[in-house]
Design goal:
alpha+beta; 25 helices; 32 strands
Length: 751
Amino acid sequence: MSELARIESELVPLAGQLVDVIYALVPHATDAHRRRLLEIKRAAFNRQPLPEHCRHLAPLSPDLCRYRELVLRKQQLLTQDREVVLGELRQALAERIGATDFRLALADSSPALSAALRRRETTGAPFSARDCRGLYAYVCRFTAKANPLRLFTHLIPGAWMGEAAANRADSSGRCEVVFSVDAILSIERKLLERAMDARRVRLALRPLFRKDGRWQVLVERKEGWCSAFLPDLSVLGHLRALYDQRRDSGGAPDFTRTELEHALIDRTAATGHSGVETAIDRLLALGVLMPYVIEDMRAPAQALRGVDPASERVVDCLDRWHLARVDVPQLPALDRELAAIREECPDACPDGLRYYVNSYADDNLNDAEQAAAELFETLRELRPLLTAESNFSPHRRVIHRFFADELQEGTGRPYLELLAIFLRRRVEILDRLKWTFHAPDYEALKRRCRALQGQLDQTDVRHLAAACGSPPDTPVCCVGPFDLEKRRFFLSNIFAGEHVSVCRYLLGRRQQPVAEQRRDAALDVELAIPPENNLNFVVRRFDVGCGFESRWAHGYREWLEPSEIEVRLEGGRPRYVHARTGRHLRFRYSGLLQAQFLRAEYQLLLADHADSYRNPFASDAPARSATDEEYRPGLFFGPVCLRRESWLVPADTLRHLLASRDIVTATVALHRLVYERLAPRDLWFFRLLSPTAHARKPRLLDVASPLSVMVLRHALADRAAHIALSPMEPGPEGLWQAGGEGYVAELMVEV
C-alpha cells in the first residue's frame, strides 16, 4: 500500500498535467486526431492505461512514457503482488491470534469465530477472507474503544482506589475473576428448594407497613411491583417488632428460621412449634418473608457448602476462583474445570455459569497524573456546561413533578404511601407528565453550543455557563484519550463524579473510600440494589444502606427500612427525611447499570441522581446533502477537544466505490477518495449515521489496509445514510507508552 501511495502521489499530478496539455491541443487538431486526443484525455483523467495510438504525440512522449510506467507498475501491484499483500496481512493476524489473552478473549465474546479458527488450525487450511475480516474487525472494535474486550482493557488503579490500589503489587495476578452473580443466585435458589437445616436458612422481611389499620407488603407480580393488603394475621405485628428490634440493636435485620421460631414463641407465649412453623410457612407463601443463605456475594461458597453433595464441585470451583487474582495463563485451567462440571454435573451446574475478568496493569502513572493536572482547571471551567443534562434528567423531572403534585409545600407523606400511588397509577402519571421529558432550556443551550466551531475562549464559556443555570460544583469524571505528544484531551464520556466509576473494580475491597461527611449535611444513604446483574455487583461506598430486600443489609453499619422514609416538599423541591429523627437523607446509587433501568421503587428515591451527562457540544445533526461530502470543523477549549472534526460522506458513494469484488482494487479507490477529497491520512474512525436508528459507536478504519476496507464494506450493508469519518486522534505517535509500545488508553479525570 505504501508503494501504491507513492505511485499515486506521482501519477495524480502527472495525469492532471497531461489532461491540461491535451486540452490545449484539442482545438487545433483535425477531427480524426481530436477523437484520439479525447480518448487519451479520458484515460489520463481516470488514470487508466493509454490507448496504443498515442505514440505519435512527440511533444508528450517523455510524460507519456512515465505515465505508462506508473500505470503498468500499479497494475502489477494489483495483480502480481496482490497475493503478497494478502499473505502479509494473514501472517500479521496469525502472529496476533497466537497470544493466549487474544484467544481467551475471542472464545469469550465470539464463540463462532473462535470455533472457525480452531477448525482452520485442525485442517491446516489458510484463513479465508471472511476469517481475516472477522478477526480484523474484532481487533478494531477494541482499538476504537467501542467495545472493550475481556483481557484487552486494563485499569491502572490510582489514588481513587484507596489502600487496595496502593497495595496492588501485593497480588501477583493481573486478572480478577468475577463469576456471574445471576448464576450464583441460581445455585442458591436450587439449594433452597431442598430440605435445609433451619439453622442455615435466613429469613429477610419484605417492606411491611400499616395503612388505614391494615397491613400491606410490597411484592413483585408478573405485571410489576405493587403493594398488596395482607390477611389480618396477629403474627404480623410481632414480626415487625422483632425485625425492628434486631435492626435497632445494630445487627443485620434478619433471623435464621430457627432463631425466628424461638423469638416468636417467646414473644407470643406459644406452647409449641407447630403453630409457629405453620405461620412462618404462610408468611413465606405470601411473600412477606424471603429465604436466603448467602450473606456476602464476595464469598458465596461458604454459605452454599454442605447442602447438596451433587453441587459440591460447583461450590469448590466458586471457592477457588471467585474474586481470585490470577494471571492469563491460569485461565484455561478454569475453562477446562467449568467444561468438566457442565458435562459431569449438568443438574447441579446452572445454565448461565460463566465468569468475567477485571484486568489490571501496574504502569507508572506519572504521565497520566501530569496530564490530569494540566487539564483540571480547563475541565472545571467547562463543568457547568457538561452537567446541564444527564441520562436521568427526564426521570428526575417526572419524579419532581409527581411529588409536587402529591404534596403541599412544607408537608410530607410516607414514601411507601407515595410509592403505592405511583405503582397503582403509573401509566396515567407518565402519560400526564410526558411533557417533562423535554427540556427547552437545554435544547436552546445545545443549539448555541453546536453552532460553535474552532477555538473557544474563556468569555465564550462563561457566557454559555451563565445561561445554562446548572450548579457550578457538580462533581464529574471526564473520560477520554489524551494525546501525549500534542497534549490534547479528547472528551468521550462524562460520568458522575466522586469515584463511582471505579466501584466495579478490585471487588475484594470492603469499601470504596469517599470524602468524610459533615455532621450538618444530609445523611448519605446507599441504595442496596439486588446484584442480579454484574453491573450492580460493586464495592460499597457508604456505611448506611437502604433497600427493599433486607438480605443485602449485611456489612452496613446501619440499615434504613423504606417505611422510615418520608418525602417533604421544601421550596418546591422534594426532600427525603428520616421519619424518626427528621434528618435529611441523600440517596446514593453506585451501580453501573444506569438508573433508568432500575425498578420504580428505587428510581423514586433518586430525585437528584445522575449516572452520566450529555455533551452539549457534540453534534448529531443530519447531513445537509444526500450526494456531497460535508466537512464539520472540530471545537476546542484550550487543550480539551469538545467535538472532533469530521467529514460526512454519503453511504451510497462508498457502496459504489467499494463495489469491486477485488478488495485491493477497492482499497486503492477508497484511499484515493480520502486523500483527494478529505485529508491525506490513513487512520480514521468511522460511524454509521441513520436518521431512523441510534448512533453507532466508532470503529477504526485504515484506508491503507484491505482488511480494514473489508470491515467498512461489510458495515455498509446496513441501511446507513451517511458515514462520519474523523481522523484517528491521538495518532500512533501520541499513544500511551508502556514497555516500549503504544497503547490506546483513556484518562479518567475527576473534577
